[in-house]
Amino acid sequence: MDASHQASPLIHAFIDHLRIDKGSSKHTLLAYQRDLKQFETHFAKPLNNAQENDIQSFLKKLKADEQKSTSVSRKVSALKQFYKFLMREELIKEDPTLFIETPGKTQRLPKALSPEAMSELLKAADRGVAYESKLKAVLNLRDQAMLYLLYATGVRVSELITIEVSKCDIEASRVRVLGKRSKERIIPFAPLAGEILYRYVREARPLLQPDSEILFLGERGQPLTRQAFWKILRKLAALAGIQGSLHPHMLRHTFATDLLRSGMNLRSLQMLLGHADLQTTEIYTHVAPEKLKEVMDQYHPRGGGSQKKPVKD
Q1: Are the beta carbons of 175 and 189 closer than 8 angstroms?
Q2: Which is the catalytic residue, given 200, 247, 284, 291?
Q3: Where are the domains of the chain?
Q4: Which pLDDT tens digit goes with each residue over 216-271?
Q5: CATH of domain 2-88
Q6: Is 185 a catalytic residue?
Q7: pTM, to two decimals
Q8: What CA–CA distances, in Å, run from 144 to 30, 225, 256?
Q9: CATH topology of domain 115-256
Q10: Is 169 helix (H, G, I), strand (E, B) or coil?
Q11: What is the pLDDT of residue 108?
């Protein structure tokens, strides 16, 4: 990308995150890259030193230059996502864009697969990809185990590819993952995922690199990268006939949305997802509003539900 060669390492890391984890389009990546480089040029200091007044100064300049509102909105969005990323990676202590409003911007809801599409994706993993390798069966069992575990736990891809063999207790159906800010959490998983994982650990994993601590490995025994997993996911999506962009984070969104629709409370979902703030989890209430309606009907005294009965005198 032409605009990236002079950008700071922080911008490079953020763009890689958007490309690999979020599956952002080339158009979006180029636009965000230019926007962040423009702010970097204006600020003329390390980006992780920016304060709110520096952001405001940049926006005033854009207004003075009579930039289009849509262009300003995109630049603010780029900055907000960039500094949110730096916060998650613990590269800054405070978000300078926290109280900056995006002009005319509506909240973007996470995209999730439909139950039918998720089912087809799992079936594709069951069938396997046509690898041109002597280890075809091994790689397909690995892919199947990864996909089932990802959907069963909702872990981030960065967490999935760093799970250690010793941290996966198949007998107890739970896995210990290292999340953001180096916080560990234990996540249970369904028996079906456990059965597939057991087969992978017993039959396939020893043929890759028995001495490695990492659970999921590449064909040459190396730890998988996020980009490598993304390529695997795209192959499975094509095999499943899923149209449009499918990025790894959509599986996490699908996990969360499906659990909320099935009745899980937000606090439990927050713990499973490893969100530090409940507000981050609350966005899924907008994705599955029908569940909130069902709960309201059930528990509100005028909701018509049967959970609460009127008290007789």
Answers
A1: yes
A2: 284
A3: 2-88, 115-256
A4: 999 999 999 988 999 999 999 999 999 888 888 899 899 988 888 888 888 888 88
A5: 1.10.150
A6: no
A7: 0.65
A8: 34, 17, 20
A9: hpI Integrase; Chain A (1.10.443)
A10: strand
A11: 63
